[in-house]
Amino acid sequence: MTRRRYPVFLPVLLLGLSACGSHSLTATSVATGAENALEKQVGTRPTVSCPNDLDARVGATTRCTLTAGSDPTKYGVTVTVTSVKDANATFDVKVDTKPVS
Questions:
Q1: With contact defined as beta carbons under 8 Å apart, do 60 and 79 qualify?
Q2: Domain contains 79
Q3: Residues paired with 94 in a beta bridge
Q4: Boundaries of domain holding 76
Q5: Residue 78 lies in a domain
């Protein structure tokens, strides 16, 4: 069985999302934004799950989990806010190089 290894080699990605009135990004919107960015990068849409909302402030981070297609291997994903301007937050998406144990 061949495992997909592409999450291991992904570079950091930038993505802008709207911040809600509470100045946070919902866990669902962070996961969707990460999925969109990763799909654009590798050509296959992964499934990303984020358990917590993300504060729209520079340096705020959250940890998410990624799976790809029928491969049950899970990878950790770190999402970090890099800038906030008006109602938009930009963040980095970094996939761990090793699967979650």
A1: no
A2: yes
A3: 78
A4: 6-95
A5: yes
Q: How far apart are CA 46 and CA 40, in angstroms?
A: 11
Could you tell me which of 71, 73, 70, 92 has the C-alpha nearest to residue 81? Answer: 92
* Tokens 């950091």 belong to residue: 12
Predicted confidence (pLDDT) per residue in 5-18, tens digit: 443 333 334 444 44
pLDDT digits (tens, 9 = 90+) for 28-77: 989 998 998 888 888 889 999 999 999 888 999 999 999 988 889 999 99
Alpha-carbon gap, residue 50 to 24, rounded angstroms: 14
Q: Which single residue is written with the structure tokens 């989990």?
A: 65
pTM of the entire predicted model: 0.76
Cross-strand pairs, 99: 75
pLDDT of 19 reads 41
Whether 101 is covered by a domain: the verdict is: no
Q: How many domains are contained in the chain?
A: 1
- Whether 1 maps to a domain, the answer reads no
